[in-house]
Amino acid sequence: MKMKPGSWPKGLKAWKALKDHAKSDIRDRHLRDMFRRDPERFGKFSVEADGLLLDYSRNRVTRKTMRQPDELAHGLTRDPVTGIVQQEAIGLDGEFTESLRVT
Question: Which residues in the chain come in under a pLDDT of 50?
C-alpha cells in the first residue's frame, strides 16, 4: 500500500474510525450532560500515579473514545506503511526489506 506524502496517518482505517467517532458520537455532546448522565465520570476517566493526576473526565470523551488511540496504535503496527516508516527511521532502504521472507 503506497500513501501520498502527508496522508499518514490519515489514510489508516483506525484514523478514519476515530474521525468518524468524533463526528457522529462526540461532536454534539455537552460535557455537562455527560456528567449529569454519569455522576461517577471523574472516577472512570481519571488516573493518578506518583502524585500526577490525569483527568480526562473534563473532556468530551467516552469509553469508546479512550479505546480509539489504542486501536490506532495497533493499526499502525499492522499497517504496511509502518514498516516503511520504521525502515526509513533506521536507514534501511526498500531493497533490503523486499529480500526478506516472512514464514
Answer: 1, 87, 90-103
To which residue does cell 473534563 refer?
A: 58
Residue 34 · residue 59 · CB < 8 Å = no
Query: 13 — phi, psi (to 5°)?
Result: -60, -40
CB neighbour burial string for 51-84, b if at least 16 within 10 angstroms, e if fewer: eeeeeebeebbbeebeebeebbeebbeebebeeb
CA dist 54 and 57 (Å) reads 9
- Cβ atoms within 10 Å, residue 103: 2
Write out the three cell numbers for 79.
Answer: 499497517
pTM over 0.85? The answer is: no
67-72: which pairs have CB atoms within 8 A and are 24 or more residues apart?
Answer: 68/14, 68/17, 68/18, 68/21, 69/18, 71/14, 71/17, 71/18, 72/9, 72/12, 72/14, 72/15, 72/18
Residue type, 48: E
